[in-house]
Amino acid sequence: MRSKSIRSIRRAELSRAAFEAVVQFGLRGTTLDKVGAIAGVSKGVVLHHFKEKSALLEAVFRRSNTLLSESVIELYRYAETPYERLWAIIIANFFETIFNRRVCQAWVSLISEVPHNEGCQRVQIANNERIRSNLMHELRHFLPESEAQKVARHLGVQIDGIWVRAGLLPTPVEPDVAVSEIEFAISKMLPFDEISAVKHKNARKKIEQIAQIALGSKAFKDKAMQE
Asked: Which residue, among 48, 95, 87, 50, has the nearest Cα to 71 in the 3D structure?
């Protein structure tokens, strides 16, 4: 059990180092030597835990998606209404700790690996389904089932699109701007009368304030680093 625990810790450390390598050097420039240098270990140690670069990249891809999932779960703890839970999903996907230019650029590099790596494909399919399911669960409170499915799909595509754009543009896309893009889409696809507009506004404000505390806390960041 202890050996397994140490192995898991080492793999997590190497995954973090690999992600940092992708941030610094891009996908093509990331080598096992560079990952080892960032982690402070030899290339041999990296190869002991990940037999090839593609396996390491899959672990990095899985880790980046896990961080998003953990952020949603953390904000769900404080969301009390369908409005707040919907905004928890949105805010978690664009919180500044995760959604910044360096991470977005690395994510764009990693996403390019999906068509060529079955492991990454499985991770991305699972991630897409998780986002769709989370959105569907809340959108059912606002829309009929068939419409909720369409809106969930459109919002998922838009979230991915904003991430891609943020990774490609020469200037950063601020989290608040990204969230406002989704808010505009929601205002067009969901019932949005005067009363619901106020509820959405209040829900966004509450979840953003909670995110600053919950996702910005040292405890959450330390937990994320240990995953």
From this structure: 95
pLDDT over threshold 80, residue 189: yes
* pTM for the model: 0.87
CATH superfamily of 65-226: Tetracycline Repressor, domain 2 (1.10.357.10)
CB 95 within 8 A of CB 215: yes
Q: Return the HEC string of 23-78.
A: HHHHHHHCCHHHHHHHHCCCHHHHHHHCCCHHHHHHHHHHHHHHHHHHHHHHHHCC
DSSP 8-state symbol, 99: S
User: What's domain 1-51's superfamily in CATH?
Assistant: Homeodomain-like (1.10.10.60)
Per the prediction, the chain carries an average pLDDT of 88
26 torsion bin: left (phi>0), alpha (psi -120 to 50), beta (else): left
Give the containing element (helix H, strand E) for 174: none
